[in-house]
Design a protein that fits this description.
It is built from 15 helices and 18 strands. It is of the alpha+beta class. The strands form five sheets. A six-stranded mixed beta sheet has the order 12-16-11-15-13-14. Strands 1-10-9-8 form a four-stranded mixed beta sheet, covered by helices on one side. The protein has a four-stranded antiparallel beta sheet with strand order 4-5-7-6, covered by helices on one side. The chain is globular. It starts with a strand and ends with a strand. GO terms for molecular function: peptide transmembrane transporter activity.
């Protein structure tokens, strides 16, 4: 099978990687305690069963006795403890350490306040893992499907160090293992014969191609060189709907496309109204109808639709018409001292991609037309862009967040003041963090969602991020590919697919 995969992976180390392209490969080569099924819903993985204590604090997982690594060594409870301790170890400097913070002592370990052997995970025996949480966590099992909770091979890491993910060195426990990695060319994965469910895996070889230009990717698909694409060119969507509807997939996705504002720098640091002005000047309907064309939904809040029982929040001006918004935004800029003789100047960072470029040009045009803002565009390749993002070397940047699990906290956690580099704006607000903390300790689902909604209201009042649209997901999927099921998380493990010739 040949899969378009968007970009050259930053890393295949689950503790290091942060992007979606990496996760699409990792979901094939690793398996956590639980794993997404073909429809994206939770299924048992390495754990064949589990029990939860009455107070919701203790999870006891029974691991499959036949679980082994691809090198034949047994996969035990101690492997998960090693992997998770490594994940939260400050020496690893993982941007995703916070995912495991629901485990007791994990946050303190990440912050250097405790040694990593204090992580509250215990190997009762080789096939029994006992995990104690700091508070009842409604989404804990969902969270364990995230790549940061995958087991990693201690034997390979200690032998090869940072090179452990290279072909010949890597040891995996999923349906596939890596055989070749040609930078900017392809990654080749082959079926892992020692995978616990290898008999049901029908595709023997998978190629992942890092094609960043979606137009090029579509040409390769139409030429029969790819079975699936990572995305499609936005301007081609109407044509694809008309002419290739049987192979064009378009469905809701648990993600938000947004611009992050660096609130550690002036002029945005001390002026939330200025941040609102940039957000108010965007005509989201035009962006969706004329540029993205994928049936996306205008975003006036941070958490996407799709969470059962959660009431979506919106900015205070969401109900006003575009003309009124622009007039209010102009007044904000004037009050801040910006006018034709002294225009607000903004540098906008985006990662190299035709779709992101078109959106950036359109938004820069709106800011210029409606507010007189002068915007300079800066594009960087994915790895360079990630470094600029993490080091806050930008004024405004294009970004997106795809939920790690279907829960509002997967979005709201990202803007906590103590999250570190992954925080896309350098944002920090104690009221916001306190509401999130209270929600983490709340057992009642309705009360918990109410607290999370309060946090989102605080966030939208401060506006460190500009929500632009809620995603739909587009892929081309060859009619020879069987078993593909659209789902909110866009998870499509190769182990559930087959290719008919």
């Amino acid at each position: 099978m040949k899969r378009g995969n968007g970009a050259e992976p930053e890393s295949l180390d689950p503790a290091i990687s942060t992007g979606v392209p990496e996760s699409f490969i990792q979901i094939d080569i690793f398996e956590g305690l639980v794993h997404p099924g073909p429809d994206g819903t939770l299924r048992p993985g390495v754990a064949e069963s589990w029990q939860v204590s009455d107070d919701g604090l203790t999870y006891t997982f029974k691991l499959r006795p036949d679980a082994v690594w691809s090198d034949g060594s047994p996969l035990t409870a101690k492997d998960f403890i090693y992997s998770w301790a490594r994940m939260v170890d400050p020496a690893t400097a993982s941007n995703y350490a916070f995912i495991l913070w629901p485990i007791r002592n994990a946050e303190q370990i990440t912050k250097g306040e405790m040694p990593k052997d204090r992580l509250a995970a215990e190997a009762v025996d080789d096939h029994t893992l006992k995990v104690t949480l700091r508070a009842p966590t409604a989404y804990f099992l969902q969270m364990l499907m995230h790549h940061s909770a995958y087991p990693v091979p201690r034997q390979a890491i200690e032998k090869f160090g940072p090179e452990w993910t290279r072909p010949g060195n890597i040891v995996t426990n999923g349906a596939y293992t890596i055989q070749e990695w040609v930078p900017q060319g392809h990654i080749k994965a082959v079926k892992n014969p020692r995978f616990r469910d290898a008999a049901s895996v029908q595709i023997d070889i998978v190629y992942y191609y890092p094609v960043e230009e979606y137009g090029t990717e579509l040409k390769q698909f139409r030429a029969g060189e790819l079975h699936t694409t990572y995305d499609v060119p936005q301007e081609q969507i109407p044509w694809l709907e008309q002419n290739m509807a049987d192979q064009f997939r378009n469905s809701p996705y648990f993600g938000t496309y947004y611009y992050g504002i660096n609130v550690t720098r002036e002029p945005f640091k001390s002026n939330p109204k200025l941040r609102h002005a940039l957000a108010m000047a965007l005509d989201r309907d035009i962006l969706i109808k004329q540029i993205t064309k994928g049936g996306e939904f205008p975003a006036y809040g941070w958490v996407p639709p799709g969470v059962p029982g959660y009431e979506q929040q919106q900015v205070s001006w969401a109900g006003t018409d575009q003309k009124t918004r622009v007039a209010d935004a102009k007044k904000i800029l004037a009050d801040a001292g910006f006018d034709k003789s002294n225009p607000l100047k903004v540098e906008l960072l985006y990662n190299t991609n035709d779709n992101h470029k078109k959106i950036a040009i359109a938004i820069a045009g709106m800011w210029k037309q409606f507010l007189g803002v002068e915007t300079s565009l800066r594009n960087e390749e994915w790895k360079v862009y990630l470094e600029s993002r993490n080091k806050k070397q930008f004024e405004v940047m294009r970004a997106a967040w795809i939920g790690d699990y279907v829960d509002p906290y997967s979005f709201l956690e990202l803007l906590r003041g103590d999250i570190g580099e992954q925080n896309p704006a350098g944002y920090s607000n104690k009221d916001y963090d306190q509401a999130a903390d209270k929600a983490a300790n709340e057992k009642d689902p309705a009360a918990r969602f109410k607290l999370l909604a309060e946090a989102e209201k605080t966030l939208l009042a401060d506006m460190p991020i500009i929500p632009i649209y809620f995603y739909t997901q587009q892929h081309m999927v060859s009619d020879s590919v069987k078993g593909w099921q659209d789902n909110l998380m866009d998870w499509h493990p190769t182990r559930y697919l087959r290719v008919e010739k």
